[in-house]
């Protein structure tokens, strides 16, 4: 097979052709620095502000200066977490979850080295948070809660509306940040609505919504104070130093515009149908699999499946030779041999955590793409299991196997 079949939209999305098209003039004639004070530059600055307000409209932000353009979701997350805590130095406690992206987890670990106390909330076997545990973790010393909207590895969705509401009911002075990188465009978000009005900070990234890599967004609700994270010039309302990345900002605004088309065309419904029929087919044709997160509320585009007795990396290697682009765990950690921290937090046995694949669909995925993976995968798994020293041993213990794989669709 020479055609590439891209099924790794949670790692990154292709740049939409419409996005690329609107960016191109800003690499050619419209190169002036928007901070300069002559007409050509000020026209470009006006176009940037138009882009900002159209994104604000999409997200339901009341004021467009509640949005900052950053270099990535990782930068937005660092800014929100560190900037919030620095603004309120007496508060020394953070609440987050065990299954966050490293952008959050490593920031929290770094803050622990500076003397902050961090509560890492556990999840159940489906990857869901326990609300009671969350309530118990809130304390008078808590300065910030940082909980993701949708998980990058399993697609499991957290009830950030409920969690942010509880936070404010317990203490209106505790701030709530959500890493919405894997949710924008897939889940509803209206920051001015009753459901989401308790969110103070939201981080996201351009390259998960068909804009280029290297641009992120940070929402800061009016009244929620943040210390500057990138010091420098007076750009971005004096909240982030650095010359504005105009082509990428213009591209990001177009990418948001296209998300509205996706919602109008019911893209998520189409993807959930493709994902569900794929899971059903694999469950029928491959014995002893585990669908991680099955039974929880999940993003429509993501499935995470363990095929015991074989390494996820070996499956990837075989599928790669056939033209499929898929991840094991998140792209940011797949270079390491450690099993996914998300699956381990969900109590997935070590052997299953090592054998997981993350398949994520998006705007340009066709039924044929998913069908060809469903066709190729059983043979790949069978061949790898035949040469696995663990497979024979496992097959001799059918009762143990049946209990372990109660997570697959049968
Ligand atoms: N948060 C989540 C949930 C992600 O999936 C990612 C990227 O995969 C990030 C944060 C980091 O995004 P960026 O690459 O823009 O820094």
Key attributes of the depicted protein:
410 residues, binds pyridoxal-5'-phosphate, single chain, alpha/beta, 15 helices
Word description of this protein:
The two termini are 31 Å apart. The protein is of the alpha/beta class and 410 residues long. It is built from 15 helices and 12 strands. 41% of the residues lie in helices and 13% in strands. The strands form 3 sheets. Strands 2-8-7-6-5-3-4 form a 7-stranded mixed beta sheet, with helices on both faces. Strands 9-10-12 form a 3-stranded antiparallel beta sheet. α4 links the parallel β3 (93-97) and β4 (117-121). Residues 72-74, 101, 103, 148, 152, 179, 181-182, 205, 216, 330, 332 line the site of pyridoxal-5'-phosphate.
* Ligands bound, unique: pyridoxal-5'-phosphate
Number of helix segments? Answer: 15
Q: Which class best fits the helix and strand makeup?
A: alpha/beta
Distance between the termini: 31 Å
**Using DSSP, what is the number of strands?**
12
Give the helix/strand layout.
Layout: E1 5-6, H1 17-23, H2 39-59, E2 67-70, H3 73-87, E3 93-97, H4 102-113, E4 117-121, H5 131-137, E5 142-146, H6 160-170, E6 175-179, E7 201-205, E8 216-220, H7 235-238, H8 246-264, H9 267-285, E9 289-291, E10 302-307, H10 312-321, E11 324-325, H11 341-345, H12 350-354, E12 356-360, H13 367-386, H14 389-395, H15 398-404
Helix pairs in contact: 1-8, 2-8, 3-4, 9-13, 10-13
Bound molecules: pyridoxal-5'-phosphate.
């Amino acid at each position: 097979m020479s055609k590439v079949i891209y099924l790794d939209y949670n790692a990154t999305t292709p740049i939409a052709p419409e996005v690329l098209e609107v960016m191109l003039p800003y690499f050619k004639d419209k190169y002036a620095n928007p901070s300069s004070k002559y007409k050509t530059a000020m026209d470009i600055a006006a176009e940037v502000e138009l882009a900002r307000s159209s994104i604000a409209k999409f997200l339901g932000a009341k004021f467009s200066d509640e949005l900052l353009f950053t270099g990535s979701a990782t930068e937005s997350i660092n800014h929100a977490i560190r900037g919030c805590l620095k603004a309120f130095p007496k508060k020394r406690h953070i609440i987050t979850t065990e299954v966050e992206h490293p952008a959050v987890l490593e920031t929290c670990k770094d803050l622990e080295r500076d003397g902050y106390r961090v509560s890492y909330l556990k999840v159940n076997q489906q990857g869901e948070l326990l609300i009671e545990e969350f309530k118990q973790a809130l304390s008078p010393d808590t300065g910030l809660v940082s909980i993701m909207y949708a998980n990058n590895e399993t697609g499991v969705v957290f009830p950030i509306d409920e969690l942010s509401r509880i936070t404010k009911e317990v203490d209106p002075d505790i701030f709530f940040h959500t890493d919405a990188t894997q949710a924008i465009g897939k889940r509803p978000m209206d920051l001015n609505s009753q459901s989401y009005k308790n969110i103070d900070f939201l981080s996201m990234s351009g390259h998960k919504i068909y804009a280029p890599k290297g641009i992120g967004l940070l929402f800061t609700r009016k009244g929620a104070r943040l210390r500057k994270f990138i010091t420098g010039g007076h750009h971005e309302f004096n909240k982030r130093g650095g010359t504005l990345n105009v082509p990428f900002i213009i591209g990001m605004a177009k990418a948001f515009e296209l998300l509205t088309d996706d919602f109008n065309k019911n893209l998520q419904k189409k993807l959930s149908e493709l994902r569900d029929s794929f899971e059903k087919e694999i469950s029928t044709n491959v014995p002893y699999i585990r669908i991680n997160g099955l039974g929880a509320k999940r993003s429509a585009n993501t499935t995470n499946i363990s095929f015991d007795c074989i390494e996820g990396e070996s499956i990837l290697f075989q599928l790669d030779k056939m033209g499929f682009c898929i991840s094991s765990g998140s792209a940011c950690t797949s270079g390491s041999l450690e099993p996914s921290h998300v699956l381990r937090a969900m109590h997935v046995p070590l052997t299953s955590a090592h054998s997981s694949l993350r398949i994520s669909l998006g705007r340009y995925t066709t039924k044929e793409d998913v069908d060809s993976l469903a066709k190729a995968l059983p043979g790949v798994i069978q061949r790898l299991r035949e040469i696995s020293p663990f497979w024979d041993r496992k097959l001799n213990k059918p009762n143990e196997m049946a209990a372990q794989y109660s997570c697959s669709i049968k």
